[in-house]
Structure prediction request, 423 residues.
Amino acid sequence: MTRFHAAASALALCVATNASAAETPSKADILATYANIAQAKYDDSLIAAKMLQTAVHALIANPSDATLAAAKAAWISARVPYQQTEVYRFGNPIVDEWEGKVNAWPLDEGLIDYVDATYGGPSDENEFAALNVIANPNFTLSGQTIDASQITPELLAETLHEADGIEANVATGYHAIEFLLWGQDLNGHGVGAGNRPWTDYASGADCTGGNCDRRGEYLRAVTDLLVSDLDWMVAQWVEGGDARLALTENEATGVSAILTGMGSLSYGEQAGERMRLGLMLNDPEEEHDCFSDNTHNSHYYDGLGIQNVYLGSYTRIDGTPISGASLSDLITATDPALDAEMKVKLANTMQALGRIKSTAEAGFAYDQMLERGNAGGEALIMGGVNGLIDQTKTIERIVTKLELDQIDFEGSDSLDNPNAVFQ
Prediction:
């Protein structure tokens, strides 16, 4: 895959001499702010996931329209802090290697539960696309008989997730939970999200979809696993945690990690794989939160995560502000015009993503925006794409200004080689 290149000639991180030392923040302080905000974001994600866990347990114990609606609302709330952490990927290997456990997509949902007849069955690409582990307490995987009579976090994480080495076999994380709460979105580009009935968790004769007890077991296990995975990541960012130590071991490398995360999420991941690709394919399945129709929020909070890393400022879910020395402060001390440019572009991107968000909340969902020939939807999405690309160009200029080693931002065929998308 082609990558977006940002390069400069020198090895060391330097600052211009046109600002006094008192005005120029230390790189150590910038890295400390970045790590402190990472810790706070993951802690907020953990807090929100525990609220989701409570709601899920209530749904399983007492299935009803009300408890299902409460669990869905808790899931949507849990996405707000988590999506703001995605800017820590790419530049931080500990995060990037872990992220697939909690936010992998798209998924072949037939691996987990029943699906509509139009979904199809096993394919050459994925033999387990319609496994339906909820309905099958025993199955064969890679030549071994698997005992799935009890659905546990260990079964999901160690056996089922990415079964047979196939990335689409997503068995854990937010999107597996999302599917179990909403079910498939069978509306295509039409109005409506997934519409799983609460009776899919009912007991006895009220049970729909079959295997309601095992569906509850799966939902409990996958939600408990999410909580434990987030708890682990919080520990990586506390004082003495591995992620914090890796970040601060070398100051120039640490600053490069910040910019790598910003540029890669802006360009290849969000502008490309999550937005432009879906628009090129006009595929309602190519939206990040496809079961719940929550993609507008996922895109918005991804963008906000990039902005608050640059500004060194984050507001916790309880309203507590966290701020400190930032990249913005460093660039202001060296090139105020470049800092102003970056702030304007970040604001423009957030305005474009905000238009997508507000329009979706008004009733024009993201999967409707993706429909071929929908000029209004295309304009909204491309506004976000163009804003993200434009801000990446300024991130590239910041890398050059700081005289960092070459940074390879993640790319996407949808941006770098569009013809390859259809080959």
Observations:
- The beta strands are 4-6, 138-141, 144-147, 313-315, 321-323, 407-409.
- The two ends are 14 Å apart (CA to CA).
- The longest strand covers residues 138-141.
